[in-house]
Specification:
By secondary structure, this protein is mainly alpha-helical. It has ten helices and five strands, in the order H-E-E-E-E-E-H-H-H-H-H-H-H-H-H. One of its GO terms (molecular function) is carbohydrate binding.
Length: about 300
């Protein structure tokens, strides 16, 4: 600590204009933000980009490595003075409405963004588990699979009507009260079969067994059935798609959980690649990386 004589001398110098006394930088005087980071751009050592309210300097060549999550980026401190380093509401959905519209430029108006956000209340862990990168990857993975199932959120119901009578398992004790051909594919994951309508309805507190048409008339119900399957059903896989993403098994494992018996293991590589392509596009829109194990 300075002695009182030294402090007096420093004060005198300041008064004389010899010594400038510098106050701590306020958030309003933070450095200007550099050009925003782009997941598709290539950065060489020394290049600077802004992301999440900070400027970042690349240590070496990089592409698709998110600042703040990859060692290649060095934090140069806050910029702009107004943008927080974390979302103002940590519970908010990681996909904005603008990003959603960018992902699905030709979507059917039935598949509303507000319907999707409303559906998330049923499963608060969806896209809100783990790091920011994991949350964005899970949202992208879900929407990529939804994109494939619905032709880009265009189709609300299964297009092959010849399949409709096949989705009634009359051996179930509750039967098919809505009719033999009532349990065809509907909604973002194309929910089908009477036992799936029963299970989803029981989980969501909605009588879908008797009212399966709710999945094609109520956007929030439709989205809830998609999130229900994602969060709770293994399908032909060994884990839920949610667990695959939050536990690091990769996007390929989500394909296995949704349609692995028909697509994975070389059964239909074109269908698998369609899902992978959408996932890679969506993580880029969300400003993150795809991770490993993309195929099944």
């Amino acid at each position: 600590m300075f002695g009182k004589h030294v402090m007096a001398a420093l004060a005198a110098l300041a008064v004389a204009g010899v010594l400038a006394v510098v106050a701590p930088m306020s958030s309003a005087s933070a450095a200007a933000c550099a050009t925003p980071w782009s997941s598709g751009a290539v950065y060489t050592g020394g290049a600077v980009a802004s992301h999440n309210g900070h400027n970042w300097s690349a240590k070496w060549w990089t592409q698709n490595e998110t600042p703040g999550t990859a060692a290649v980026w060095a934090d140069q401190g806050t910029c702009g003075g107004t943008t927080p380093t974390t979302p103002p509401n940590p519970g908010a959905f990681v996909v904005s409405e603008a990003q959603f519209n960018q992902m699905f430029p030709s979507r059917n108006s039935f598949y509303t963004y507000n319907g999707l956000v409303a559906a998330l209340s049923a499963y608060p862990a969806f896209a809100r588990t783990g790091s920011d990168t994991v949350r964005r990857q899970e949202a992208a993975a879900f929407l990529a699979n939804v994109n494939h199932e619905t032709g880009g959120l265009v189709h609300i119901v299964e297009q092959n009507t010849a399949n409709y009578p096949h989705y009634c398992d009359a051996g179930q004790p509750y039967g098919c009260p809505a009719g033999q051909a009532a349990y065809y594919g509907r909604g973002p994951i194309q929910l089908s079969w009477n036992f799936n309508y029963k299970a989803a309805g029981d989980a969501l507190g909605i009588n879908l067994l008797n009212n399966p048409n709710l999945v094609q008339t109520d956007p929030a119900v439709a989205w809830k059935t998609g999130v229900w399957y994602w969060m709770s059903q293994n399908g032909p896989g060994t884990m839920t798609a949610h667990n695959a993403m939050v536990n690091g098994y990769g996007f390929g494992e989500t394909i296995r959980s949704i349609n692995g018996s028909l697509e994975c293991g070389g059964r239909n590589p074109a269908q698998v690649q369609s899902r992978v392509n959408a996932y890679q596009r969506f993580v880029q829109i969300l400003g993150t990386t795809p991770g490993g194990n993309l195929s099944c």
